[in-house]
Amino acid sequence: MRSFADSDGDGVGDLRGLMAHLDVLNDGDPRTDDDLGVDTLWLMPINPSPSYHGYDVTDYRAVAPAYGTLADLDALLGAAHARGMHVVLDLVVNHTSSAHPWFRAARDPTHAEHARYRDYYRWRAAPSGDKRPWDGAPLWHESGDGRRYYALFWSGMPDLNLENPAVQQEALDVMRFWLARGVDGFRLDAVRHLIEGPDGAVADVEGSHALLRRLRAAIERDHPNALLVGEAWTDTPGIARYAGDGDELHLAFSFDVAAAVLQAINDDQRLPLAQALARAETAFADRAFEAQFLTNHDQARVMRQLGGDVAKATLAAATLFALPGTPFVYYGEEIGMQGGASRDDEDKRTPMRFARAGARHGFTSAARAWHDAPEAAGVDVESQRAAGLWRSYQRLIALRHAERALSSDEAVRPVVTGGGRGAFALLRSRGAERVLFVANFHREPAPPFSVEVGGAPRVLLASGAPKVRRDGDTLVVDGLGARGWAFVRLTR
Ligand SMILES: [Ca+2]
Ligand SMILES: [Ca+2]
Ligand SMILES: [Ca+2]
């Protein structure tokens, strides 16, 4: 939201700016192809917050003034829905800002509403030596009157006491508030940490799973199509538990698979990806529960991790759209933005670039954006719409829409013989419809290889001009270049 498009010249992205640029995401006309074909927008937090990133909310039922008003959101929802797009909001209910009125009341024993809000948070009288497992930071923070409160991420983000039924009800009411306005679902932040264990466990406590089941069931009664996608940043078996048997999150971000795609490309071999997919095959009850992505707002951008190599980035994108589950694209990835070079989060979240010309490339009319970093020439939508990475993303999304096999939950890895260590194959199917994805993760062209799958092949989309022919019960793939890939439709 902050970095997509600025409508009023203050250097900060906003809802009106996003609305003015919907055409480049999805123009609502399936006959045109100068739009990306995006189905759903995930907006990072739009609630009022003292921070630029918004993950510390002070009012769950309002829009941050810098981003606009509730009326602007209503207008965006109307415009998105008119194009057949959905809108998902970031929902941060593990914690609030320490400036949230609930916490102000809970913290101050003289506050008129202290008794009502005290148990919205977690308090203790005695000091605690409990430390955050991954870096040893303190978990309990001085409130100023001898009491301590629990805050996992930092003292400015006190955790809500989600074991308190009143707080659970607040979370549900907030979700219903936005769903009633027409929002289509939520990206739930930090789901591993919602509820803490009696033994001091800070993550993956059974109570968090129970809460997700309760929220899902309550939401589905009135909004059966609402989406819950969640961030559980851990290993694949741990992630998969948050989708459960289809009764917790609809989609869980598949962090391990995302990292494996990039590692396979950077290591010139399929092995890391094959291993990550094997783990996902075992862990997920249904592959449809996976939310696939390459990198997100907390990670160095995919193009930075791939060293600015467009062939690598195109292979990463092709692999993303070959995977089962639902693919997510982080804005700017489709034009090869690298973001800034530092490890600061702001450098992962620099402004979108639409136009070839202008100091701020169409993001804002202001001389300065809220934050920015240099990019290579041609890293903008205008430059890449004809033949660049943006065009590859557009074609891959169109293919994903056209081939029903690619949006099924079926994905098997047929045996590959020859082709070197970079040769890879993934078969997607829906009933009799089958699409084979083949790729070469190596920096050198792949020697010819065979894939143990039958059928008459037709190449739908590829880099270069590989030849795929039938040889009895196998397919022979010839001419797959360095970082080459192809989607092949198979018929009996
Ligand atoms: Ca603005
Ligand atoms: Ca279109
Ligand atoms: Ca928590």
Explain what this protein looks like in three dimensions:
The structure is a single chain. The strands form 4 sheets. This protein has a 7-stranded parallel beta sheet. The chain has 3 domains: 15-97 and 163-404, TIM Barrel (Alpha-Beta Barrel); 101-150, no CATH class; 410-491, Immunoglobulin-like, CATH 2.60.40.1180. The radius of gyration is 24 Å and the shape is globular. By secondary structure, it is of the alpha/beta class. 27% of the residues lie in helices and 17% in strands. The protein contains 14 helices and 19 strands. The structure holds calcium ion (3 copies). The site of one calcium ion has 6 residues, from loops. One calcium ion (CA) is lined by residues 6-8, 10, 12, 14.
Give a brief rundown of this model.
With 492 residues, this protein is of the alpha/beta class. Helices cover 27% and strands 17% of the residues. It starts with 14 loop residues before the first helix and ends with a strand.
